[in-house]
Thioredoxin family protein
Amino acid sequence: MKKIILLLALAFSAFLSHAQNAVTLKAGDAAPDFKLKNVDNKEVSFGTFKDAKGYIVVFTCNTCPYAIGYEQRIIDLDKKFKSQGYPVIAINPNDPEASNADTFAKMQDLAKDKKYSFPYLFDPGQKITDEYGAKRTPHIFIVSKTAKGNVVEYVGAIDNDPEGNNPQKIKYAEDVIASLKSGQKPAITQTKEIGCTVKRKAKA
């Protein structure tokens, strides 16, 4: 009987751990800091950007067709907003054992080939991915730096045009930053993320 109770307790603990990992941060939540290795082998955290007013944290990868489709838009976000105090910080959430094209070496190759102007970070064990509750690639979290710490302002998609052919698309990320720069809270703080699911190695 004791053995059965122990097994049930372990199973419940595992369920709770999974459930906690499944919770995605929302607007108003504290944004966890991190210290992850960039493709240039240097560690990057929020503190790396001393003069930042906030951050565009995007979980993306080498392989997902949606991530590839949004790649130029991510590059453009950094080029447009880094000088205004909102740099892009990209994090690869995929486990390289589950997605062989998402190894650190291949991340380095992609960043060099595409001339990334922003950090592209490796997340060993998917710890930061789980803390943010990132579900898909790409999945974006726009963060403000405040007197009380780093706060999530927006979670979801970059825009509502994954195909990249709608001139009337709603540019969620750009609209959020425009609001923050004007000292206002964003009108939209959450949208449905668009992309491939985060790749995880099979559990034994």
